Amino acid sequence: MKIGNIELENNIFLAPMAGVTDLAFRILCKEMGAGLVVSEMVSSKGMYYEDPGTKTLLQVNPKERPIAIQIFGSDSKIMSNIVEEYLNPRKDIDIIDINMGCPAPKIVKNGDGSALMKEPKLVRQILREVIRVSQKPVTLKIRMGWDESSINGIDIAKIADEEGVAALTVHARTRDMFYSGKANWEFIKEVKENVSIPIIGNGDIFGPQDAVEMFKLTNCDGVAIGRGSQGNPWIFKRIRDIMVGKEDRPPTNEEIIQMCIRHLELLCSIKGERVGVREMRKHTAWYLKGLRNSNEIKNLIYTIVSKEEIKKVLYEYIASNP
């Protein structure tokens, strides 16, 4: 699959998730077969005003390329400025993705994220100004609409098509649904039928068969996996395997624990032990979900501040739960 001039190994992508798709996790997902990985959301204003915390979100590694950086904002001039002045010169970034789907209250209260679904004219302005200056393919992520009474995702998709967006990711929920209920895959199919640009389906892919069903139902060009990849970077390889007729092989308990330990090591090497251990707690809970006696181990790990202590607990878990 190609997005603009960027050739991708496959059409199974890691969706951006704030606080999740950092450098360490992206590297693991790339190793497990993701055709494209996307950064956490990066504030365009944070970049414009050179916020130190924002800069850390832009750290990338050659191992994860091709890489898309997702930006959010609602000021078209600031967004086009940071693309032209900061992102264009970066040779280690391949694609610029614009977020118009985030439902978080702290994002939409400023008119950013999925709040832009209510402002089609502003959507067009942002896309036009960013694409005009960008030297990299520009992609977009949207939802179905703001709420059930204003489902305008197809109209927004047509604007994206007209303005030269290279690919469009559609999360098949409205903003007011957040992540509840069931994603409406039929809507992804409708969007695909109404535009000419590649459509990436997103929402409720938690296992390999879900991806197969989404491709079959929607005729989408690719799929983006968010929550289904949490504690589960194998999902990309498993989808690829069954799509080429190979047997689906879920990871063993030992493979799960070994991946968790590798994630811990990688995260601490990038962010330092203090931050890495703290941020790894949620990932550990996702890795251990559903395993025997996992609640006891998760509760224990939430009290530990040492990387080596966490590893010791996990190795002991493997020994006692072969």
From TrEMBL:
Positions annotated as active site in the UniProt record: C102 (proton donor)
Ranges where the DUS-like FMN-binding domain occurs: 14-315
Function: Catalyzes the synthesis of 5,6-dihydrouridine (D), a modified base found in the D-loop of most tRNAs, via the reduction of the C5-C6 double bond in target uridines.
Keyword Transcription regulation attached: no
Protein name: tRNA-dihydrouridine synthase
Enzyme Commission identifier(s): 1.3.1.-
Organism: Tissierella pigra
Cofactor or coenzyme needed: FMN
Molecular function per GO: flavin adenine dinucleotide binding; tRNA binding; tRNA dihydrouridine synthase activity
Domain of life: Bacteria
The organism's taxonomic lineage, starting at the top: Bacteria, Bacillati, Bacillota, Tissierellia, Tissierellales
Positions annotated to bind FMN: P16, M17, A18, Q70, K141, H171, G226, R227
Gene name, Swiss-Prot/TrEMBL: dusB
Catalyzed chemical reaction(s): a 5,6-dihydrouridine in tRNA + NADP(+) = a uridine in tRNA + NADPH + H(+); a 5,6-dihydrouridine in tRNA + NAD(+) = a uridine in tRNA + NADH + H(+)
Alphabetical keyword list: Flavoprotein, FMN, NADP, Nucleotide-binding, Oxidoreductase, RNA-binding, tRNA processing, tRNA-binding
Protein family membership: Belongs to the dus family.
UniProt cross-references to Pfam families, sorted A to Z: Dus
